[in-house]
Predict the structure.
Amino acid sequence: MESKFEKIKNFWLDAGKTELDGDGLKPTARDPFMQLINEYHIENRLDSNDNVLDVGCGEGTSTIRFASSCKKITGVDYSPTLIEQAVAKKSGIDFKVNDVLELDKLFPTAQFDAVVSIRCLINLPEKEMQYKALDNLFKVLKPGGLLFFSEGYQLGWDMLNVYRQRNNLSIINVVEYNRLFENVELETYLRSKGTIREYVGFGDYLFGSRVTHPMLTNGKVVHDSPINELFYKQHISTGVYQKFDECSYAGIYVVQKSK
Ligand SMILES: C[S@@+](CC[C@H](N)C(=O)[O-])C[C@H]1O[C@@H](n2cnc3c(N)ncnc32)[C@H](O)[C@@H]1O
């Protein structure tokens, strides 16, 4: 019988057979404005001398954007169909098929100045796999290098649902192929590997797009709507995101690996 890991891997294999899903959204980044927020914060923190690895790069759009903010970038993903899409963009970037659980086999030394992981490890179905993958991210990162870890976190998810219920909106369930990180456990692990330099939460955008927006539209929300674009622009231009940290189930941990 197909394991949950294989089921999820097949999901990403199928996802790469099309550029847009039935809703006209990119399967790898169904919320385009959250993706732009991720890209904005990461590109602003990369150094022009950095050799960067983007793990779980999907069809490579973000990797290609990051390339202009660093010296060199490599993208890896375990879905050959998504890597095919990335290569077809002819950006000159090295895109390779690789499972994050085997990353240390592809890159046996600590060679990257920065490692990016955007919504990749949440696709691993067991906690042990997620932390083995995290170990691998740190193994390929040079001492003193930066990990940009942008995944999904339980506390913010729960708080967002509290606010939704208070406003008579239904709870949002985590999709079957995602496993969120427990914040305290994750932060304890990250501190064992280095120093958490920042947490850039997306709480304002998430509250706007997942609570305010459906309140205005009787619960009906499309991710690429002008309302969400407004919350995205507000996030970028005013930096109010810290005020909604309790709702930030998505956000970037910037971790500097111990020297
Ligand atoms: C939600 S998409 C995000 C893609 C990209 N990081 C972005 O932000 O657009 C998750 C990606 O992680 C990849 N992925 C999931 N599990 C993986 C694994 N074990 N090893 C490598 N890639 C993986 C999937 O194939 C998919 O491309």
Strands lie at 51-55, 72-77, 94-97, 112-118, 141-150, 194-201, 251-257. The chain is about 45% helix and 20% strand. Residues 4-153+177-203+250-257 form a domain with the Rossmann fold fold (CATH 3.40.50.150).
